[in-house]
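User: Predict structure, ligand iron/sulfur cluster.
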Amino acid sequence: MFNPSKEKTYMPVQDANVRNKNFDEVSLGYDCNSAINEANRCLNCKNTPCVSGCPVGVKIPDFIGKIKEGKFEEAYEIINNTNTLAAICGRVCPQENQCEKNCVRAKNGEAVAIGRLERFVADFHLNNSSDDNIKKVASKNQKVAVIGSGPAGLSCASELAKRGYQVTIFEALHLAGGVLVYGIPEFRLPKSIVQKQIDHLISLGVEIKTNVVIGKTITIEELKNTYNYKAIFIASGAGLPRFMNIENENANGVYSANEYLTRINLMKAYKETSDTPIVKANKVAVVGGGNVAMDAARCAKRMGAKEVYIIYRRSKEEMPARQEEVEHALEEGIEFKFLTNPISIGKDSNNFVNKIRCVKMKLGEPDASNRRSPIVIENSEFDIEVDCVIMAIGTSPNPLIRNSLSDLKVEKWGGIIVDEETNATSIESIYAGGDAVTGSATVILAMGAGKKAADSIDKYLSLKK
Ligand code: FAD
Ligand code: SF4
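Assistant: Predicted complex:
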């Protein structure tokens, strides 16, 4: 029965003052009734504007139609045909800028909660299915190497394994998942969910070799010539942090967001039992306005900091972070200092950070990113007392792989150049995708690139036989 409500069906969340002291998941998800209730808000538009907003073209009205009928497994099958990481994307995709942005219901009220419904269906499937009876497809006897186990690598490996290739993922860290395990915190994306996706891959026959740094432990030449991999997909991400190059950025207590988040998420520094040390700060400044900055700030709060500031040089409207993360951060007591930019860091005689000096900004004309450019207001310097600074101003691809392959064409900023149609690099049999190509982007775009590369590798190897 059609639900005329202008608002999304409520999804329960942990209370802000409770959750800002623990690492458990913030949003608790729909139950069957609330999912059906929300699905009944969908108009089943014939021209499917939501689908054109989804980077991988999930058949949104079709899966929502199945939820209306209570056929949740069938809904899952529809999503899974185009998105193999639904439980993850339902949680972290910036839906407000993608599928939900185009939803007709948003013209007079809130969009249908497509992300929440996707999450519900994927969780239902994960909780009610098992990988025990998965049939491995007969092997094609051709080996493919995937470098990196983030969403790009996982989706490429999954597609190729389903087509019978012998796929090995090589991962530099000790745990597979890329940013999904070392970057995005447990309270936004429980690691058990990522692990289930990885277990599913293993049940498809994919081999995962961790603690292997391609370009160091094994070279790409060795992958081809010694280990006989017939095609290679580079999905090594963009994990090299950028800094501002301001005074005292190397003081104790200044972290890149990547290091700070890795210590907390991958190495579990928030647990008493963890061997990994992390600074216990009282006043923390996080510089940046994206998802990474929100995650770092919300982790700092959970680590016990009394005051946590987000320092962002533009205004709230220009912030690239997901809307939900910004709202959750505000509720949890994070203080936003908009139109503010750091110019130096202060330190004490023991080389520990003790303040951050900032200037006030105003907004000028739109720049290349189409956002209004920030301009310094003269004589507006002021200090904020802090004992920890976290830099979350972006990352770029690690140079290791490109430095080990002289024929690999790359952009000046380090991104690997690929053919847009096929994701083929300048070297035959080597493909690339995800953040390693685009620079820091999104999970769904990385996943889509992995899928596209798998199609191209399949075509390439089929012709080679
Ligand atoms: P990655 O996920 O970075 O994975 C690359 C993997 O390759 C890593 O595990 C790395 O260890 C490995 N690797 C690198 N070099 C080598 C080598 N030489 N040999 C072997 N292995 C190697 N996106 C969203 O859509 N929504 C969000 O809410 C969101 N939040 C984010 C929060 C944080 C903190 C961060 C850092 C990113 C966030 N993103 C978000 C962006 C998103 O996670 C990335 O765009 C996505 O993970 C890119 O996927 P990828 O597979 O290309 O690379
Ligand atoms: Fe349903 Fe909104 Fe998509 Fe229309 S645009 S089919 S209402 S989700």
